[in-house]
Design brief:
Layout: E1 4-5, E2 26-30, H1 37-49, E3 54-60, H2 64-69, E4 75-79, H3 92-101, E5 104-107, H4 115-125, E6 131-134, H5 136-142, H6 148-151, E7 155-158, H7 162-172, H8 181-192, E8 195-198, E9 204-206, E10 210-213, H9 226-239, H10 244-270, H11 273-287
Parallel strand pairs: 1-10, 2-3, 2-5, 3-4, 5-6, 6-7, 7-8
Antiparallel strand pairs: 8-9, 9-10
Helix pairs in contact: 1-9, 1-11, 5-7, 9-10, 9-11, 10-11
The chain binds ligand NPW and adenosine-5'-diphosphate.
Adenosine-5'-diphosphate (ADP) binds next to helix 9 and helix 10.
Length: 291
Amino acid sequence: MRMDIVREVPRLKPRPADGHKGTFGKVCIVAGSVGMAGAAALAGRAALRSGAGLVRVATARSALPTVAALEPCYTTIALPEDSAGRISGKAIGVILDAASQNDALAIGPGLGTSAGLRSVVGTLVQQDGLRLVIDGDGLNNLSRLPDWPGKHRAEVVLTPHPGEMKRLWSGLFREALPSDRQEAAGRMAQATGSVVAFKGAGTVVTDGRRAYVNSTGNPGMGTAGSGDVLTGIITALMGQGLACFEATVLGVYIHGAAGDIAADACGQISLTATDIIEALPEAFRKSHKRI
Ligand SMILES: NC(=O)C1=CN([C@@H]2O[C@H](COP(=O)(O)OP(=O)(O)OC[C@H]3O[C@@H](n4cnc5c(N)ncnc54)[C@H](OP(=O)(O)O)[C@@H]3O)[C@@H](O)[C@H]2O)[C@@H](O)CC1
Ligand SMILES: Nc1ncnc2c1ncn2[C@@H]1O[C@H](COP(=O)(O)OP(=O)(O)O)[C@@H](O)[C@H]1O
């Protein structure tokens, strides 16, 4: 597969002097469940540290007090839940309202999987004009909807790790996942009309035409919640007006750079996803010297 290799990482524009929180993007993150409130908080907090003007975290009603207590700077939206404390299919109306009121929406971190969640994700990908990041269990629910690429109208970014990629792949293709990561990501992007960030050492970002292979990051980032942080970063960059491919390239680069700064400070062994968020200010300042 031939794709143009992108080597330059995009940058955010300097902030206008009269900018305000409405200028820098409203984003909503649909995430979390009882037992995985942390995933929602990590994504929401990472979005704040990545420059979104307003961050809303929509989560299962029972998980909300925990999610809200973990960070005072985002607001929260309580969603109807099922008996296991996962967001239920009945939440779709509130989620569609949130989608129409925000510049970008993410769904997935810590959701769990269920028929109700599958129908929520399936409905979201069909929304014209929606800019949507799908991660974690959002991808696991999506992989059980084999006909979604033919129906999708939203601008979609998929951020699978190898386990999620395998599930997505077997849902769409009757063949094994190619061992070449760039080929796998490129074919997934072409078949689905999405931007794909195939995560791992040397994350590949592609829209099926262009490919970027990331050089930042380290094995210390193989730690619970690290990918939830990436979701928040990419969503915030989309909220600030970057196109899906550019936001994903910059997001993956900054996430790895923050992971490298965090590893310098506390070592790869002790590094946690929270440390990556704490290192985002330095990662942005190094790469955006004038902002
Ligand atoms: N604090 C919280 O609330 C947290 C909540 N979280 C939330 O949990 C949800 C489930 O996500 P998850 O990734 O833990 O489970 P899942 O999708 O079954 O994947 C595991 C499978 O994939 C594979 N695999 C993974 N990476 C691989 C790699 N690099 N290379 C190769 N294989 C790899 C792995 O294979 P194995 O190595 O075990 O053979 C295993 O089979 C999700 O919504 C997330 O947001 C988490 O973020 C944690 C913190
Ligand atoms: N060896 C590595 N080198 C660089 N980045 C890594 C490495 N291992 C993991 N990462 C990054 O850490 C993140 C892990 O995400 P993910 O597996 O989704 O974690 P979680 O589901 O726990 O949030 C990805 O962005 C991945 O690229």
